[in-house]
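Incident review: delayed structure delivery

Summary: a single-chain prediction request sat in the queue longer than the usual turnaround. Root cause was a stuck worker, restarted by the on-call engineer. No data loss occurred. The affected request and its eventual output are reproduced below so the record is complete for anyone auditing the incident later.

Affected input:
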Amino acid sequence: FEVKAPLARIVGHPGPVPPGVAVRTISREDVDECDRLYVRVQGWSRRVDLRDALGDFTGYAALRDGRIVACTYVLYAGVVAWAVAETDDDMMALLAGVGAAVKGPVGVNAPTGTAFFRRCLGLGFRVEKPLTLMARGGWRESRGCYLPSGIY
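Output delivered after worker restart:
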């Protein structure tokens, strides 16, 4: 493994879903569109992971103009697995929808050197613990907003 970035496990309330965005649960029919988004943002596929996760967990997507712009699935009590979004605003909208659905705070692993992380702190998210993002093999910087999973 190689160290890629410092992370922090953060928990908080992202606020309401902004106007112009719809957040809904996803189904197996959404997996291909979610996977295309993941590939655009991160450069590799999570199709199988997402498809399999939907058997046990609830997936969510944020949509703008009917198009999926952010997606994730929730492991338990608002704890997000990985999440990808075209923009930080799209990610925040997705997390707002997740928070509304679980009726509580949302927990994510966020890269600490990003505007998204600083935005979350400004909203009152609290740091639970520091983490380190590590990867084996190929890696590229995100082309959008990416919140990595805590599960390997």
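Verification: Residues 2-147 form a domain with the Aminopeptidase fold (CATH 3.40.630.30).
Action items: add queue-age alerting; document worker restart procedure.
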